[in-house]
Amino acid sequence: MAALRLRLGILASGGGSNLQAIIDACKSGWLDGEVRVVISNTPEAGALQRARAEGIPSFRLSSRTNPDPEDLDRAILRTLREQEVEWVILAGYLKKLGRETLESFRGRILNIHPALLPKFGGPGMYGQHVHQAVLAAGEKTTGASVHLVDEQYDHGEVIAQREVPVQEGDTPATLAARVLETEHALLIDTLRRISEEEPARQNGPLPRSR
Ligand code: GRF
User: Percentages helix, strand, coil for the chain, rounded to the nearest 5?
Assistant: First the structure.
C-alpha cells in the first residue's frame, strides 16, 4: 500500500532545531510529510521564527494568551484540527498538554527526549539538566528517545531510541550538542517509519526499534 503523507503539528518552546530537521526532511523528500502548523508557548521561540521563514502557519498559545487551562487546551486542539493535523510532535515543548488534546490524539503524540528513557526523564529533566545528570551519574552512554505522550512528563511508551557515547572530557554543552544531532536523525527516521507503516499500524502498536 502506498505510504500516507503525514500531516504534522509541531509544538516547541525553544530554538526549533528539531522542527527544522523535520521541515528539511519533508522538503528533501526523505520524509513524506508536511508540517501543517507550529504552536509555541513563548513568543521568542526560534521555532516560531523558523515557521514564519518557511511560510508555515504559526501560533503562540500559552497561559498568557489563554489564562484558563481548559480554554488553552481547547485552543490548542482547535488549532491542530483546523490545520487537519494527524500526528502531534512535541519538539522541545516544555508544557504539559491538556486532557482534551491528549484524548483526541492519543497514540499519535510523540515527544523527543535527550536521554535514554526511562533514565533521566521526568519533572525537571529538560535542557542542560538532563546532560548534567548523565555526567554526574558517570554514564558511559546516553542518547535520545522518541516516546508516546501521556499525562506524565517523559512517561509514555518508548518507540525508538539511539545511543550516543559519553566521551572523556564531555561537558553538559558538548554532550548536548552531540545528542541534539542524534535527536534530529532519530526523529526524522521515526517519522519516516511511521509514514511507511501507517496503514499496517491500524492493526497494532508501532514496534520498537533502535
Ligand atoms: C532538545 O534537546 C529536545 O530533546 C529537548 O529540548 C531540546 C530542543 O531543541 N526536549 P530544539 O528547540 O529542537 O533545538
Answer: 40, 20, 40
142 lines ligand 1 (CB under 6 A): no
Between CA 202 and CA 205 the distance in angstroms is 8
pLDDT at 50: 98
Q: Is 161 helix (H, G, I), strand (E, B) or coil?
A: strand
**What one-character DSSP code corresponds to residue 200?**
H
Residues in the chain: 210
Q: Which of 11, 18, 129, 179, when mutated, tests ligand 1's pocket best, judged by the most ligand atoms within 8 Å of its CB?
A: 18
For a mutational test of ligand 1's pocket, the pick from 110, 183, 188, i.e. the residue with the most ligand atoms closer than 8 A to its C-beta, is: 183
CA distance 144 to 57: 28
| CA–CA separation, 130 and 128 (whole Å) | 5
What pLDDT shows up at residue 198? Answer: 72
Angstrom distance (rounded) from CA 82 to CA 72: 15
The alpha carbons of the chain give a radius of gyration, in whole angstroms, of: 17
Answer yes or no: is the C-beta of 98 below 6 A from any ligand 1 atom.
Answer: no
Asked whether residue 90 carries a pLDDT value surpassing 80, the answer given is: yes
| Alpha-carbon gap, residue 175 to 163, rounded angstroms | 12
Q: How many whole angstroms separate alpha carbon 187 and alpha carbon 196?
A: 14
Q: Is the CB of 33 under 6 A from ligand 1?
A: no
SS3 assignment, position 194: helix
Quote the pLDDT of residue 3: 46
